[in-house]
Predict the 3D structure of the following.
Amino acid sequence: MATRILGERVGIKPTISEGTAFAPANIALCKYWGKRDEELNLPVTSSLSISLGHLGTTTTVQPISASADEIALNGKPVAPNATFAKALSAYLDLFRPAPDFFFRVETTNSIPTAAGMASSASGFAALVLALNNLFEWELPVKHLSILARLGSGSASRSVMTGFVEWLAGAEEDGMDSYAEQISGTWPDLQLGVLKLSEKEKEISSRKAMRCTRMTSALYESWPIKVEHDMALIKEAIGAQDFELLGRTAESNALAMHATGLAAWPPVLFWLPESVATMQKIWKLRTDGLPLYFTMDAGPNVKLLFRADNLSAIQAAFPEVEVVKPFE
Ligand code: DP6
């Protein structure tokens, strides 16, 4: 697939010494959950996210004369047999102009490590953008999105800023499955990240999606739910209707987690702290605070609120990490 996009650029070595790029992390308001093609990361449904402004990954790639890639993360070398290095090198295989061509990759995350947000989306997006600069491919953003998707599905949404829709597409080769920016900003929309656990995930989103799609009786209702929620979220963005956005995003996340519960073996990412946090949010909302949440494939909770409620949110959750996506 990379070959199809690169066309006559395949096999051509770079003439400059390095390429650098930044890509923002993103949080899905309508989730990507389930693949119709596991190799190409083609999703069953479309999804929609907000990019997190200046929080993300900056990556520099350089050609090196060596017998393997050299990878550094946040200033520290990563062992070649570490999962992170293996995933990166396997992905770089798609782009080597010759089998003995290796890269030095320096990648730095500006996402506060305490925030516990997945960095694979911004990581693969920053890597593709850096390669585009190094090789001077000058690819259109649609093609960059497709290439980022081959690394991790959610990375397709991290090659652009603001609200982003990843179109599911229908073609077998995935050439119509890429992200597009949705026009409009929302300056007073804020996010809060509550890191509830340091523990490594017990199951990757990749495996959890597979198990859910194959075994959960509830999965057949997921595409219907997504179609409905996508329309509501777009309406909310257009009308800057915070309640509609919050309610739809929260309901979408809960529905995603519900499909996992009905899978076998069951997929449950929540810890007791996650449930207690959800209950606290529902109580605060009943008491009049416009506050909603979303959750990805892990135990941490992400809050959605408006700037004018920031101090109330900080009072209720002193440990909250605040993210201002449109600042
Ligand atoms: C729950 O993009 O990490 O965060 O394509 O297998 O790399 P792979 O999965 P990944 O899955 C993200 C799942 C999610 C929802 C979302 O971000 O839309």
Residues 189-323 form a domain with the Alpha-Beta Plaits fold (CATH 3.30.70.890). The chain is about 35% helix and 25% strand. The first strand starts at residue 19 and ends at 30.
